[in-house]
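queue> pop job 88
queue> type: inverse folding (structure -> sequence)
queue> payload:
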């Protein structure tokens, strides 16, 4: 800026440009929630624990991630060994050690089961024996067994019953030993937690894969009478976070969220496949002149779906909603004719109206209403 005489005037001071950010920063440090957040981020940047992992994509120079590359001799392993009676720490130790164990590349059902036992099964079975009143170890055993070892692969059969066409190839995924171990864990979990639909639903998975369909149907009907659905999956990240926090004193929102983001939920796709087969069994029963048997199977799956929707995770809610919807397929054994260009809302209304008409025909007017 120049004066009238053509001389340059000295720069005008603007202390506000410096004072305002400092005041904002001071306010953030004074407020407990934001102060805690800033402290966590600074600690994450300068963290020196053995969790070091690159986070350049997030704009962070370096920070910790909740994983232990080598369990033996690590500080979390030592802490768990010092607290053999602490269920939470022992569960975290078993699952952290299991997930960091190498996986084999065998392709047979027997090799899949042997690999599962080496990584998860032996540790979770030992945990179940150590804490006989806890259903969690059996629930985790079943959940991780559906990760490449046990599931229902009979979608082709279900499709053929409902549409008369087959596009998929069915196969048995388990073996004699894996079926027995899966059934034992499901039975033990149901005995410990008798009001939980999760265990008989999972038991039906193994029974259907073993082609023990009558027993599988009994398990589904039993599951439909349970009062709640709890797969215990959220025990895992909570336990892992407790172990990491007590070991290293970590206090990071990013770290805690990452333990939940890494949670594996393979059992939900398996439960969907089991429900699809169950509904196909209901359709078949209705076509063969056993309508009340078909209706009972539909009701059982719907009740399980309702319990799943009342669960603690959004995935459980979504899968429960899908199972509830598929339970109305082919009411009375007949296919619903839909227009080729029908919208999703029109398809929903057509399925709903067809199922309501089926209920009224079966004398279930109160339910239809």
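queue> result:
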């Amino acid at each position: 800026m120049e004066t009238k005489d053509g001389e340059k005037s000295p720069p005008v001071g603007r202390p506000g440009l410096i004072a305002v950010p400092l005041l904002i920063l001071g306010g953030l440090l004074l407020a407990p929630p934001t102060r805690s957040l800033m402290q966590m981020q600074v600690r994450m940047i300068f963290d020196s624990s053995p969790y070091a992992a690159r986070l350049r994509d997030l704009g962070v120079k370096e920070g910790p991630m909740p994983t232990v590359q080598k369990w033996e001799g690590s500080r979390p392993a030592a802490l768990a060994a010092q607290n053999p009676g602490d269920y939470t720490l022992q569960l975290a130790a078993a699952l952290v050690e299991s997930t960091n164990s190498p996986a084999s590349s065998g392709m047979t059902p027997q090799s899949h089961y042997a690999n599962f036992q080496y990584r998860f099964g032996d540790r979770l079975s030992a945990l179940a024996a150590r804490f006989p009143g806890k259903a969690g170890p059996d629930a985790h055993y079943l959940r991780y067994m559906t990760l490449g070892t046990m599931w229902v692969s009979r979608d082709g059969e279900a499709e053929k019953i409902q549409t008369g066409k087959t596009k998929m190839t069915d196969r048995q995924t388990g073996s004699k030993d894996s079926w027995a171990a899966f059934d034992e864990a499901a039975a033990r979990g149901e005995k410990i937690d008798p009001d939980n639909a999760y265990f008989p639903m999972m038991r039906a998975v193994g029974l259907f894969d073993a082609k023990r369909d009558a027993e599988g149907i009994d398990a589904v009907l039993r599951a439909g009478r349970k009062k709640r659905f709890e797969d215990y999956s959220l025990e895992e990240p909570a336990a892992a976070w407790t172990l990491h926090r007590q070991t290293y004193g970590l206090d990071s929102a990013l770290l805690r969220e990452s333990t939940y983001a890494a949670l594996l939920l393979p059992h939900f796709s398996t439960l969907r496949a089991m429900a699809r087969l169950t509904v196909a069994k209901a359709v078949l029963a209705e076509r063969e002149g056993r309508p009340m048997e078909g209706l009972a199977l539909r009701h059982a799956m719907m009740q399980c779906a309702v319990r799943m929707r009342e669960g603690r995770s959004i995935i459980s809610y979504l899968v429960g909603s899908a199972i509830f919807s598929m339970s109305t397929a082919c009411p009375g054994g007949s296919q619903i004719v839909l227009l080729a260009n029908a919208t999703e809302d029109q398809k929903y209304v057509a399925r709903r109206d067809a199922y309501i008409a089926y209920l009224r025909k079966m004398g279930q007017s109160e339910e239809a209403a």
